[in-house]
């Protein structure tokens, strides 16, 4: 077990999934994301999922971030048959993807006075 920072284990895993949505396919992508997020929310070890919409005009780069209690919990979900079947249709709505995974070693929270 890793050290604790602000009450959270440093063994926690953060995943950043950058998605280049195909032009004109935002609605289909959002519908598919809704299906995936409901399933992943029930997955053991999953903490939170966030979807980020691009703010730059003309950008089609969306970002999905998630946090997991351990890397093992994430990889067990990612390698499951259920996950593979669920995300296969996502390819229809995106041009490219990139996944970054990292351990949370420090976290800065809002300081309330």
TrEMBL record:
Domain of life, source organism: Bacteria
Keyword check for Oxidoreductase: yes
Keywords, in A-Z order: Monooxygenase, Oxidoreductase
Protein name: Antibiotic biosynthesis monooxygenase family protein
Species of provenance: Streptomyces achmelvichensis
Phylogenetic lineage: Bacteria, Bacillati, Actinomycetota, Actinomycetes, Kitasatosporales
């Amino acid at each position: 077990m890793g050290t604790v920072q602000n009450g959270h284990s440093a063994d926690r895993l953060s995943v950043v999934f950058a998605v280049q949505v195909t032009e004109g396919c935002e609605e289909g992508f959002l519908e598919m994301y809704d299906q995936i997020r409901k399933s992943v929310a029930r997955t053991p070890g999953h903490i939170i999922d966030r979807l980020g919409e691009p703010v730059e005009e003309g950008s089609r780069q969306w970002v999905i971030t998630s946090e997991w209690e351990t890397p093992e919990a994430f990889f067990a979900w990612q390698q499951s048959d259920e996950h593979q079947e669920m995300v296969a249709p996502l390819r229809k709505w995106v041009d490219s993807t990139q996944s970054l995974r990292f351990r949370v070693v420090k976290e800065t929270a809002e300081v309330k006075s």
